[in-house]
């Protein structure tokens, strides 16, 4: 199922009015979630525990939140060593968003569940100023204090 309609009873957003602004929960209802296809990669047999290679899908989620579009994960990045090891077949972030009826400029918030190549590789394709997890930077191979997508 590529899209879903969910009714959430409570959600937190610092941009909501009233009690939510003070760090309390505020009611949110009817949030749409769309699954994004970022492609796949081939996990080598030595990493699967089965002795056989395995195709791993690379998915993200676009959440229609009252505070704006929230993107969970941004797809696969490119690196020659990673590409040789995992043989990825990428769907670029703009293409995946277009299939869901959105553009990179439409995304207000970004959450990467973690910072592996298959979850945060599309971060540089987003406009500057989108919220991202602390520690990510497109210009540094190691952690940084960056909390915004670079611009």
Task: Please give the structural blueprint.
Blueprint: E1 3-6, E2 31-43, H1 45-48, E3 54-65, E4 68-72, H2 80-86, E5 89-90, H3 93-99, E6 107-111, H4 117-120
Parallel strand pairs: 4-6
Antiparallel strand pairs: 1-2, 2-3, 2-5, 3-4
Walkthrough of the structure:
The protein has 151 residues and is an alpha+beta fold. The chain has one domain (3-125): Ribonuclease Z/Hydroxyacylglutathione hydrolase-like (Metallo-beta-lactamase, Chain A), CATH 3.60.15.10. The chain is 15% helix and 27% strand. The chain contains four helices and six strands. Strands 1, 2, 3, 4, 5 and 6 form a six-stranded mixed beta sheet that branches. A hairpin with a 2-residue loop joins strand 3 (54-65) and strand 4 (68-72). The relative contact order is 0.15.
Kindly estimate the percentage of residues that lie in beta strands according to DSSP: 25-35%
Into how many domains do the coordinates divide?
1
Number of helices: 4
The class by helix and strand makeup works out as alpha+beta
CATH architecture: 4-Layer Sandwich
CATH class: Alpha Beta
Please give the share of residues in helix.
Answer: 10-25%
Question: What characterizes the major β-sheet?
Answer: 6 strands, mixed
CATH superfamily: Ribonuclease Z/Hydroxyacylglutathione hydrolase-like
Order of SSEs: EEHEEHEHEH
Mean pLDDT: 77
**What shape does the CA trace take?**
elongated
Radius of gyration: 17 Å
Terminal Cα span: 34 Å
């Amino acid at each position: 199922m590529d899209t879903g309609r969910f009714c959430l009873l409570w959600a937190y957003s610092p941009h909501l009015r009233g009690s939510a602004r003070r760090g309390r929960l505020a009611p949110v209802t009817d949030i749409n979630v769309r699954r994004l296809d970022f492609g796949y990669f081939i996990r080598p047999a030595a990493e699967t525990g089965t002795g056989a290679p395995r195709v791993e899908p690379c998915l993200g989620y676009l959440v229609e939140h009252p505070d704006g579009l929230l993107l969970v994960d941004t797809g696969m990045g490119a690196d020659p060593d990673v590409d040789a090891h995992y043989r990825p077949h990428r769907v670029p972030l703009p293409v995946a968003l277009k299939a869901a009826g959105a553009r990179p400029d439409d995304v207000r918030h970004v959450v990467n569940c973690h910072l592996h190549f298959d979850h945060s590789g599309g971060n540089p394709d987003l406009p500057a100023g989108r919220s991202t997890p602390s520690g990510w930077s497109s210009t540094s191979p190691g952690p940084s204090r960056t909390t915004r997508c670079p611009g």
